[in-house]
């Protein structure tokens, strides 16, 4: 147990170190002055430049520079944006939670709709209801996410006028960002008309969540269904049937858990797709998330922002992936024997 | 009247556009209190028969039989509920691959305890019942010769050695106190001492509790001493069936004779270091089954008539299916 935790933390630490190195080298790879790319500050004269160079230890060897860089990242000195001149930490601190919020709701949608439907389809495999569920999920899964999002905008925002076109919440409400999750922030705020604000936030959330969630749900259905069908054909299910156990006993004692185990690692793979989809969709809905923010940074050639944005997104993705895998590792008793192979 | 009575069991598998008869008119019966051996080379369809009896065959295969009854009730036409009840209380199976017949995500104890019929468990509160369940589980694993129940009941299937897994499957089968135990190759790969232990246990259960046993194996030596009667299977066809002692003394079918001859200890008259007579060739695969008598290409007595499937013939309770059996003059 302790051993597993140590192994996973080492893995996480090393991966993040490599990432930090890549983000550091971006400062040199991007066009322009590495000093400016690294700090986001534009020195006005030679004296200022020298002071900055000394402060960031850019006169030393690369290794020292890198260590200093990591130190700064850990301390929260991520540099400044070229365009806004604001500290990047602050900007990412607002944009990243907005994306994670979207992705979380989409994932919850996938879990609460996709997994039960997948179980249902798998248990009834090759029946009419299974065919309906399966073909719907394949169709949804094949939609390109931006096209699907545009379709939703076209139908619900432009034609039916039942959902707002863009943004996170109406400008009427002034919500103090505490956690970065708009729903939680509204609940924490001292607003007089909380229910109204919540309703407004939900109507803003609905379409982007649906656009990302539908595709994740579809793949969740397919993964779950496949896994249930696989487990149903295992010899131990036949053996359980031959012992005269009832269908309920077989489902709850033998199929449920065994089918869930292969789903979790596949979910970890989904996280990357999910965040990517969220980043695409939020540019369409002008959702103030990290995807939108990065696109702006690209247009503006805001190199420090790109460097930090890439670091932040990949840190989130990698941490989540490793955590899901660790969780799966802890609940699956039969994975002990593959200990060496997993990490 | 036999407890388990199967007549002309045929199993057809679709493969591409052809349909293959993996089992062709198999006859098998087990009487009350009897140990019946089902022998045949591996690949002859023994395990398919076992799966057919407990209804574990994939539904896309076509299973037909003139009769397949358990205590006079038709197994093929009874309701799912009835069939489940029969499997729960009366017939117990040990499948041939114990390790894969155990759920990898549950401990052995959980799996054993869930096989205990509710009727056996005393106590009115759930903790009393849980305690009693545990007691039954422990005494059952002791019975099959597993000593460290503490260790093994809380182990997962991948943590135990293969022979413990086999014993465990036997324990799971016995815990419901069935009337018929079907054991598919239960001693495969066991060490001789463990094997003897299991065979002794079976014999004892047969004598004290009059448990009927269908013992499936290709190991003639193991069963010859304990079985009362025997059914010999070749490539999905029953070739000979009857009392063990009759068959041992005077086999009628060329295949049975070859099978017996290949086990040296049956031939007391064999001079030392003599050549063992066996059939040439090997058992045909399902895709290349010969027509008529499936032994044809390997049979030393085969004649033209053998392209027709021979009918089952009977001398008292000894039956065989061969056009030119050994008690007839060589054609
Ligand atoms: N699931 C299956 N799909 C296709 N063929 C099978 C399957 N199971 C068994 N068979 C075939 O049926 C024949 C009999 O197999 P089996 O009953 O396992 O033999 P035995 O138990 O006597 O060794 C073999 O030729 C085998 O290839
Ligand atoms: S029927 Fe013919 S081929 Fe078949 S066992 Fe008898 S003699 Fe041999
Ligand atoms: Mg077999």
Fold and architecture overview:
The complex is a heterodimer of chains A (343) and B (331). With 343 residues, chain A is mainly α. Chain A folds into two domains: 1-83 and 301-343, no CATH class; 93-299, MetI-like (MetI-like fold). Chain A has helices at residues 2-29, 34-39, 46-55, 62-75, 88-123, 128-142, 145-159, 182-188, 194-232, 235-242, 247-284, 290-299, 303-331, 339-342. Chain A starts with a helix and ends with a helix. The relative contact order of chain B is 0.14. In chain B, α4 packs across α6. Chain B folds into two domains: 4-90 and 178-320, Rossmann fold; 106-177, no CATH class. In chain B, β10 (229-234) and β11 form a beta hairpin. Chain A binds chain B through residues 233-236, 238-246, 249, 253-254, 257-258, 261, 332-334, 336-337, and chain B through 51, 54-56, 58, 84-89, 92-93, 95, 97, 100-106, 110, 114-115, 156-159, 172, 176. Iron/sulfur cluster binds next to loops of chain B. Adenosine-5'-diphosphate (ADP) binds next to α1 of chain B.
